[in-house]
């Protein structure tokens, strides 16, 4: 759920330095599209030399304003830049050389995608499909050089006869920054194009873009199972087909950001029931700011490269609710991302144990619609469910695996998004959550229920988990 609001919202919205609950911030941009200017947008004539000079000036001006915004953030707030496609006007090598130079103006980490000018308009319109290949090769180098781990749907095989290799994938990638998972779908997630090798050309490799619906679904599932806020980036919103729209809705995507239409800025309808936003262009001196607070996402428009005059156009509450799911999972503690919630097969006590793919550390999740909570059965013994052992609820806190008893709320769990993972609230007393005792990770560490710690407490990590789907 979101609301439009173009009015001044007070200091906490309009000045990050006094927003005490600001978690992280992003400049979301698109279409630097060197060499392109406002005159190009309007169809006004401009000689090539002037166009290149003015395009560079417009891009530098936008990036300077983004730097000024980033420099205003408190020292404990991370900032990043997202660029949703059309890095170049046609994918020429000289254009890529220039934009690669200009983008280094940014003083925060940046992550870009490709647009129609990079990989569609130029297809079969350059010798050896060199412009198309230039764009993909630059993207590959960009993703591989980023400062955080990225899941990239790309593979290279070969060399084959005459020494060429094949670069193949959807070229989509997933980026986790704090509690937010960004999925970059590039220009069009359904694109299917192949640029064949030319053995006498400098770029003689084969490049193939193919749709990969299953890869996207797997990324969405992992993000949901880790309790992430999911944001999808794409160059053209209209390229998200009905199948992808349903997929994004099913996994609880929070927002979609796109570019392409240079003179459009701000709210941009929706993708199914998911709010959408569009980020303008360097040629129009416009972009978006996304700020994550502890309880909401705030989206602002920036015009005339003046972030101080930004306008709030959307607020999305950060919901703790997750889409309903089912299946077999491991429950992994955030304390070390390796130890799992495990059932002792001898006495059925529940404890922490290192992950050895043991069946007694795998759990079958089924949603009880009437109780609005999950029954979590142990995979090694389906008669045993994860439960709070509460003969005396005032003092007992141990967790064990026991036969399911209808009407026993202590056998049911409400699963919510936490700060950096999932929280398991017991339905009998939702103030009590699954907890690793004393934050230890040694094999045999007891699992219990405990009052939820504040998000700022170091002990909170012992109460947040993520799920790993079993095939």
TrEMBL record:
Superkingdom of the organism of origin: Bacteria
Annotated Ricin B lectin domain residues: 327-468
Gene Ontology MF annotations: hydrolase activity
Organism: Bacillus thuringiensis subsp. medellin
Entry-linked InterPro entries: Calcineurin-like_PHP, Metallo-depent_PP-like, Ricin_B-like_lectins, Ricin_B_lectin, STPP_CPPED1
CDD domains: beta-trefoil_Ricin_HA17-like (cd23445)
Region described as Disordered: 33-54
Biased composition (Basic and acidic residues): 41-54
Name the record gives this protein: Ricin B lectin domain-containing protein
SMART domains, alphabetized: RICIN
């Amino acid at each position: 759920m979101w609301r439009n609001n173009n009015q001044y919202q007070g200091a906490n919205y309009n000045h990050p330095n006094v927003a005490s609950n600001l978690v992280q911030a992003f400049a979301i941009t698109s279409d630097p599209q060197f060499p392109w200017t406002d005159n190009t947008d309007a169809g006004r004539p401009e000689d090539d030399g002037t166009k290149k000079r003015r395009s560079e000036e417009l891009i530098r001006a936008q990036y300077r304003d983004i730097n000024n915004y980033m420099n205003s953030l408190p020292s404990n707030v991370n900032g990043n830049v997202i660029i949703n496609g059309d890095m170049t006007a046609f994918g020429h090598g000289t254009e890529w050389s220039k934009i690669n130079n200009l983008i280094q103006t940014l003083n925060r980490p940046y992550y870009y995608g490709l647009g129609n000018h990079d990989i569609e308009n130029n297809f079969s319109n350059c010798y050896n499909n060199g412009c198309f290949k230039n764009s993909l090769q630059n993207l590959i180098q960009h993703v591989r050089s980023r400062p955080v781990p990225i899941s990239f749907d790309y593979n290279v095989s070969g060399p084959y006869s005459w020494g060429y290799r094949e670069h193949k994938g959807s070229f989509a990638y997933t980026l986790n920054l704090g509690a937010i998972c960004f999925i970059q779908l590039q220009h069009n997630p359904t694109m299917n194009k192949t640029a064949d090798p030319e053995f006498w050309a400098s770029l003689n490799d084969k490049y193939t873009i193919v749709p990969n619906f299953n890869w996207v679904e797997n990324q969405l599932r992992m993000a949901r199972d880790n309790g992430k806020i999911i944001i999808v980036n794409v160059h053209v919103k209209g390229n998200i087909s009905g199948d992808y729209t349903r997929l994004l809705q099913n996994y609880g995507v929070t927002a979609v950001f796109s570019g392409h239409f240079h003179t459009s800025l701000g709210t941009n309808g929706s993708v199914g029931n998911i709010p959408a936003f569009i980020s303008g262009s360097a040629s129009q001196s416009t972009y978006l700011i996304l700020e994550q607070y502890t309880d909401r996402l705030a989206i602002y428009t920036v015009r005339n490269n003046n972030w101080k005059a930004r306008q709030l156009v959307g607020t999305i509450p950060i919901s703790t609710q997750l889409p309903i799911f089912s299946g077999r999972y491991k429950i992994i503690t955030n304390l070390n991302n390796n130890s799992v919630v495990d059932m002792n097969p001898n006495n059925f006590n529940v404890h922490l144990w290192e992950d050895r793919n043991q069946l007694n550390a795998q759990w079958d999740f089924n949603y009880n619609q009437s109780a609005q909570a999950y029954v979590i059965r142990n995979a090694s013994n389906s008669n045993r469910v994860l439960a709070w052992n509460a003969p005396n609820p005032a003092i007992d806190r141990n967790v064990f695996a026991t036969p399911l008893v209808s009407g026993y709320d202590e056998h049911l769990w409400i699963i919510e998004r936490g700060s950096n993972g999932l929280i398991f609230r017991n339905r009998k007393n939702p103030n009590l959550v699954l907890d690793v005792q004393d934050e230890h990770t040694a094999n045999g560490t007891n699992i219990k229920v405990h009052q939820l710690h504040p998000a700022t407490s170091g002990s909170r990590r012992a109460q947040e988990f993520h799920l790993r789907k079993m095939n």
